[in-house]
Each structure stands twice: as C-alpha cells, then as structure tokens.
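Exam revision sheet. Question 4 asks you to relate a sequence to its structure. Input first:
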Amino acid sequence: MGQVSVTLNGRTYRLACDDGEEERLIELAAHVKERVEQLTLEFGQVGYDRLLLMTSLLIADELWDTRKALEVQIEEATEMLRQLTEPVAQTGQAQAKSA
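Answer key, structure tokens:
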C-alpha cells in the first residue's frame, strides 16, 4: 500500500492509497492546497476548519458545474444522434413498405 505526505496550511498529513495511485493523490492534494492558499490570500487565516470547509465547498461547486455541463453535452449529443439516425430509420421503413 502506498503512502503520501501532504502539507496543507502548515500541517503535514500522511495519507494511504493503493499502490500506483501516489501521483494522482499528490495532484489532488496540490489542487486542494492551491485553493486553500487562494482563500488564505483573499480572507486571511479565518480558522483552519472554516478554511477547509470553504475549500471543500469551492471544489464541490467546480464539480457540480462540471457535472451540469456534462449533462448538457450528453443531452445535446443524444439529440444530434437521434436526428442523424431518424432519417435512416424512416428511409428503411419507407423502403420496406414499397417492397
């Protein structure tokens, strides 16, 4: 089992992960650290718990927006596919009727 040390807002944490997932965990921790540092610059030290809550909410908001955008893209792609395949289906039905 892999382990990664992450320092966030002056505190160091040892996190366990599956072997081979260390790099991904480091990338995720870097993203969280970046957001924490942005909030610290913007609001100062507002308390450790509050800072982590604010960071979590910002990242959850990013995820929420991304999920919504993906849902819209899926709906648009589904509609385009339906429009592309509908004429083919209608042509096939017309040919079957005329035969």
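Marking note for examiners. The chain has one domain: 2-87.
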